[in-house]
Amino acid sequence: MFVAIMSGIYIHRASNKYIILSLSLLLYTLYFFFSILFKAIPASNSDFRNQSSSYVIRMNHDWNSNAESKVINALTEVSLDNKLLSWEFRDKEVAWKKIKSDSSLDLFENPLDHYFVLRYEGKLTEKQFSDIRKAVDQIKMIEMMAPLPGIEIPSLTKLKNIQVILLPFMVFSFILFVSILHGAAQSNLSSNKRVIESLLLAGAHHSKLSAVFRRNAFLNFFFALVIALVLYLTTIYLIKVGFILEIDDFKTGIIIKSIILPTLVIFVLHSIILLWKVDKYLKSI
After folding, report:
1. Residues 90 and 117 sit within 8 Å (Cβ to Cβ)
2. What band does 128 get if pLDDT is binned at 50, 70 and 90?
3. What is the C-alpha to C-alpha distance for residues 272 and 210, in angstroms, rounded to an integer?
4. Nearest to 95 by CA among 82, 114, 77
5. What is the pLDDT of residues 28-46, one digit of tens each?
């Protein structure tokens, strides 16, 4: 009997829509705020440039390319303190064949050298330069790669200032969400007053009535979470493209933390506010 009567409880679609929109806005704002607060996104150009740097290590002309793995092992274990992010070996014979195929000239002996391109966390010190040469005696030259000409990295200072703007906007989003949730809950409860009274007279427990609204709250939160995540990941992508960043420049672990922490807090808060409102209303009947 309870199930038949409880099926008559109607949740307004309009109230769901506004709750989802306000909740997704709040979650998105929190994700972005905590990502900048925890420095999951580079906060300034200096921070970004200090995160990694690239170097070219040219080998002697008579160096044997079969010793490639030995060079990398020596660099990682002796000289680079396990901060080598990536490396690439450029074979001089492959490069020479490409040059010859791209030109119609019958060129003479290969003048190129084998070399390595390294991406390193931070910047190499003078001592590290010296250690590298001691570890690999066949090195001809080590030089830092300069940025490509014509490419200018946009300033990240404005991104850092967004954190100041987000704080009052986050407070506004929270107040808006609580207000909409409070009004929507009151509207849904009032419109179902007769059904709720019938259930209470029939002996239904408050928890059974709360379950209807709790299930609806969970669905609202799920849809809001999906919208917030799509907006947040889109923003991360736009930042990556706009500021010419690499995926490695974003701290994935902290980004996940910036998502999980606000999600749990707002989910608990959302449930508490709604269930408190429902319980208070049921006790007043």
Report:
1. yes
2. confident
3. 12
4. 114
5. 999 989 988 887 776 554 4
